[in-house]
Every structure is written in C-alpha cells, then in structure tokens.
C-alpha cells in the first residue's frame, strides 16, 4: 500500500516546475555542435541559463592600469594560471587553467582582479583570445 506522504510528494512533483534548466536549447537538438554554430551565426538563440547565485566565481577580470606588478597573485595561484610579463611588469591569466578559487582576487593589494558572473567559457582552443585575460 502506498503511504500518504509518498502520494503527496508524487502529486507535488507532478505539478512542480523542473528544477533543472534546459540549456543551451529547450529541446535537445539533433546536433549540439551544429546548434551552437547556428547560435554563433545568429541563426538560432540559446535558451538562457539560470541566473548565477551571489558571489559566483566566474571568469576573472583584470585591471592592468591599477596593477603594480607585485606578483602576489602568482604566488597564491594553485593552478599556475597566471604568468608574469617582465617587459610590461603586468600579468596574463590563462582562463582555461584557472580553477576559479579567487585567491588571487583576495590577495591583490590593488584590487585589480575580480571574479565575474561569466561562466560560458567552453572553447576548442585554450589559447583563444577569450581564454586569455591581460
Ligand atoms: S597581485 Fe594585483 S597588483 Fe600584484 S601583480 Fe597581481 S594583479 Fe598586479
Ligand atoms: S582564481 Fe585561483 S586559479 Fe584562477 S587565476 Fe586566480 S588564483 Fe589562479
């Protein structure tokens, strides 16, 4: 015999909105790669992702004008995702290598580094312009 609490839960789930987000398309396209190429060409639109929670740690931003080249960010980066550029005394961040820990952000004395809401970062080329922050 089915218990009453279970029936209640079954009915609740039946009428509840899905907790997951259909992304990038509302319905699975025959080929996700073809679909994404169409999105890039403006021939299709993605189903928007869920809003990110507060304090989300997405793609890093860098204010190179305020940077003093102290290299503290390099010292704390556990992923070795930051390179020091001796000629300009500035840094380069490899997003594909970053693990989004935010330690560089926390230690920077000039507040040059910040984590953003951006998380759609997948690419076939880890050295593409979108994967390098400098
Ligand atoms: S910690 Fe900040 S100021 Fe120092 S090198 Fe890194 S980004 Fe520049
Ligand atoms: S967020 Fe973490 S992994 Fe990414 S560059 Fe900063 S210290 Fe390195």
Briefly, what CATH class of the largest domain?
Alpha Beta
The helix content, as a percent range, equals: 10-25%
Please tell me the total number of domains: 2
Name the hetero compounds present: iron/sulfur cluster
Ends apart, CA distance between termini: 64 Å
Beta content comes to 5-15%
Show the helix and strand layout:
Blueprint: H1 4-15, H2 32-40, E1 60-62, H3 72-76, E2 82-85, E3 90-94, H4 103-107, E4 113-115, E5 132-133
The structure holds iron/sulfur cluster (2 copies).
The site of one iron/sulfur cluster has 14 residues, from helix 4.
What does this structure look like?
There is one protein chain. The chain has 134 residues and is α+β, with helices and mostly antiparallel strands. It has two domains: 1-49, no CATH class; 51-134, 2-Layer Sandwich (Alpha-Beta Plaits), CATH 3.30.70.3270. The chain contains four helices and five strands. The chain has helices at 4-15, 32-40, 72-76, 103-107; strands spanning 60-62, 82-85, 90-94, 113-115, 132-133. The chain has a three-stranded antiparallel beta sheet with strand order 2-3-5, with no helix packed on it. A two-stranded antiparallel ribbon has the order 1-4. Strand 2 and strand 3 (90-94) form a beta hairpin. It is elongated. The protein starts with a helix and ends with a strand. The model has no long low-confidence stretch (mean pLDDT 92). The structure holds iron/sulfur cluster (SF4) (2 copies). One iron/sulfur cluster binds next to helix 4.
